[in-house]
Amino acid sequence: MKNTAEMMLSLFEPDVRDEVVERYGEEFADRGGGMMLYGPPGCGKTLVSEAIAYEAKHNTDIEDSYGEVVFLEVRGSDVVSKYSGESEKNVRAAFEQAHEAAGDGFAVLFFDEVETLIPDRSDDIQRHERALTNAFLQEMNDVEDNLLVIGATNMPFSIDPAATRRFPIQQFIPQPDAAVMSEVWRTSLGRISEELGEEAIAELGEASVGYTPAEIADRILGSELQRELIESVIDGDAITPDKEYLMEKLEESEPKTVRQYVSSTMKQASELEGYPEMKRYLEEQAQQIREENATSANAAATSDGAAGEEGSAASGSDTEAE
């Protein structure tokens, strides 16, 4: 995640950008004011955006060059209104707030669910949706060097092409690997992670590959676990959430988010041509799901066959006894 953030920020560092311009020309140093993060839901696009803001503030020359770095987050669903003209006003207000926050410094404006704000105008959409896309594009035209706009989406293919061009820096965010999942456990568990130790955290990270960070943080380590721990304290028999306990919680669940996403998105495979990395990922995931389903079906058939043989053997024994 840190490497992704560093790479995506590189063109906002004056020294890096100047060298790219000198070696390859202005067209290869175009930032366009925007970055797009796309991929399955719950896989850390928000975390990457926060990491980008953190890197801009602490580990690059951006704050030295521009001034204080500020991070602002806006959910698309909070912007869209059922009242005519309100959505466009909300978009303008979000950008105005970002410009004010940037001031003499640098601001990162993060739009989650950005596809709701810039739907494809070539599709059969309502007039107010078209007006919303136009308003967003107008605001993107006025983005200055000290404002970085990041859009996150699960469905990049549903975004207006003109809007996509406003996000020249694009990054696919797939399911995290074991190292990232270990960090999810470490962050979500807080002090408990220190008691578990790095080896246990690494094993939990390895075991949870295939899940999304949101599934671990919200479903497995969410309110239900909190309630269980609190009740154990009240009952005078406090649970010790060791590795075995957490592994058991993991086994009681199963990863669903990516499976559902792959199933729904593969139906729109023809629209993925502009996103080869995402298309390849979805095809690999679909193949893996088919193989897992086939393995499960074979295991079930074997189990049923064994049960049938045992039943036949028992019936034969009863007949002989008679």
Question: What does this protein structure show overall?
Answer:
Helix content is 59%, strand content 9%. The chain has a 5-stranded parallel beta sheet with strand order 2-3-4-1-5, sandwiched between helices. Helix 6 runs parallel beside helix 7 and helix 15 packs across helix 16. The chain starts with a helix and ends with a helix. The mean pLDDT is 87. GO terms for molecular function: ATP binding. It comes from Halobaculum halobium. Belongs to the AAA ATPase family.
What's this model, at a glance?
The protein is α/β, with parallel strands linked by helices and 322 residues long. 59% of the residues lie in helices and 9% in strands.
The main β sheet shows up as:
5 strands, parallel
Q: According to CATH, what is the topology of the largest domain?
A: Rossmann fold
Question: Strand arrangement, largest sheet?
Answer: 2-3-4-1-5
What's the structural domain tally? Answer: 2
Q: How many helix segments?
A: 16
| Percent of sequence in beta strands | 5-15%
* Helix percentage range: 55-70%
- Rg over C-alpha atoms, rounded to the nearest angstrom: 25 Å
Globally, the shape reads globular
- Mean pLDDT over the full residue set: 87
- Element-by-element helix/strand order: HHEHHEHHEHEHEHHHHHHHH
CATH homologous superfamily label of the largest domain = P-loop containing nucleotide triphosphate hydrolases
Helix vs. strand class:
alpha/beta
